[in-house]
Amino acid sequence: MTTDHVAIIGGGFSGALQAINLLRHQGPRATLIERRGVAGRGVAYSAAHPDHLLNVRTGNMSALPQDPGHFERWLERRHPGLVGGFAPRLIYGDYLAELLAQARALAPDRLRVVQGEAVDLVAVGEGWQIALADGARIEADAVVLAPGNLPPHIPGGIDAAALPADAFVAEPWGGDIAAGLSADDVVLVIGSGLTMIDIALLLDARGFAGRIVALSRRGLSPRAHAAVAPSTLDMRPPPNAVALLRHMRVRSRAVGWRAAVDEVRPYTEGLWIAADMAERRRFLRHLRAWWDVHRHRIAPQVAERIASMRAAGRLEIVAGKLAEVAASGNGLRVRYRPRGQDALETLTVRRIINASGPQGDLLRSEEPLLRRLIGRGLIRPDPLHLGIEVTQQSEVIGADGAPRPNLLAVGPMTRGTFWEIVAVPDIRRQTWAVARKLSNAHWVGGEGL
Ligand SMILES: Cc1cc2nc3c(=O)[nH]c(=O)nc-3n(C[C@H](O)[C@H](O)[C@H](O)COP(=O)(O)OP(=O)(O)OC[C@H]3O[C@@H](n4cnc5c(N)ncnc54)[C@H](O)[C@@H]3O)c2cc1C
């Protein structure tokens, strides 16, 4: 079957890049469907504050895998002072938006962007028909799902409906999280990862002078980047997670932990694919939290701000588990169990912000499209419930266990198969490979992008 038209559902970084990469091949026409007002930026590069910086150096943030210097050349023309460092995410969003606009201008007959929410997908002949919430229908020979992460779960112990409306922020990316707060208030952030860092910076930037308490099971928070000499390694993959940990300890002593983590990076996808389910489960249970804070590091200037907030007593990171939350006067009474203790502690806070991190359990998703796709047996969760199960070619695997060559998924929701598929360098490679597959042709040139 020939593929003349590909519909991409979700126009964040992954979907937009998928569309751009299709244009860069001798490929089919593309329709990019995005429910937000603006396509191309997604969650990470639109809802940011100027203080929110990329956590990857500019040299590694090109959107185009065949042209590693592309982002830095773009920056050189617009914000030369930022080259080589950690640019604001909003500026990276401008870069992506410009790339997409340029692609549309160069090939208006081959790329259409539709604003709307895809709510259903049915097989029609050898292709697909997508239903949008406004009643429109779009037919395509192949569909790429690029929905991004699912929003964070409501943490156990919180009954959001029972709390005053402004006391619990379920999803940190929308609205003003500092509205109505005073210097006497305490804000509890659930989670101590990258989202917590964003929230602390945002509250600080909005003038919140009160105290922030971040609560997570282990109380781990992202480590800082530092200038390290690049280190490469010709590595024989360790046979299991314990051996990997041992390897990391040895290499950390030899080259420092940052270089040791970076060295393993080219192998992580292969290690994950080679590991059996028991091994992957073991990694998730025991090592994931440690891996995440060392692997996904923050810019040094962000780390400095966080350190000074901690030193001033304005940010405290606590290891523990939330037990219960109840409305109390003008705030909330929070009970939590500190790690390693039996007794509960009590905290009175004005607001709780949920930063428990993106999740991928399809069966808990309330997204109409994903629910219908599961109901129709077109997608299924991967065995570890990290996202949508796909083959190593990013083809979606249905409830019958069969891959569908013309229904694909890209981005973080494919982490069950690839694990290392969250950051730009990984997603750009994946969308490039999917474009090659759907174009069934060799790449012929950059088309001026
Ligand atoms: C806060 C944050 C900061 C990050 N910082 C970095 C960084 O510095 N460096 C780095 O390399 N990586 C970073 N990442 C990781 C990475 O860049 C993102 O994971 C990546 O942007 C994922 O893009 P996405 O398009 O898959 O998802 P999203 O950005 O979530 O986009 C998905 C889009 O799909 C749309 N959508 C979903 N369902 C439908 C539907 N049914 N119909 C229509 N539209 C739909 C949504 O509206 C959304 O716009 C960051 C991620 C986050 C969240």
Highlighted features:
449 residues, alpha/beta, FAD/NAD(P)-binding domain, 3 domains, 32% helix, 20% strand, disordered C terminus, binds flavin-adenine dinucleotide
What does the overall shape look like?
globular
Q: How large, in whole angstroms, is the Cα Rg?
A: 22 Å
Helix content: 25-40%
Output the number of helix runs: 11
Helix and strand element order? EHEHHEEEEEEEHEHHHHEEEEHEEHH
The overall pLDDT average reads: 92
Catalogue the unreliable spans: 442-449
Bound molecules: flavin-adenine dinucleotide
Number of domains: 3
What is the CATH C level class of the largest domain, in words?
Alpha Beta
- Assign the structural class, choosing from mainly alpha, mainly beta, alpha/beta, alpha+beta, or little secondary structure: alpha/beta
Total strand segments:
16
Strand content: 15-25%
The CATH superfamily of the largest domain is known as: FAD/NAD(P)-binding domain
- Order of strands, main sheet, comes to 8-14-9-10-11-12-13
The end-to-end distance, rounded to whole angstroms, is: 29 Å
Q: Enter the CATH topology name of the largest domain.
A: FAD/NAD(P)-binding domain
Largest sheet: 7 strands, mixed
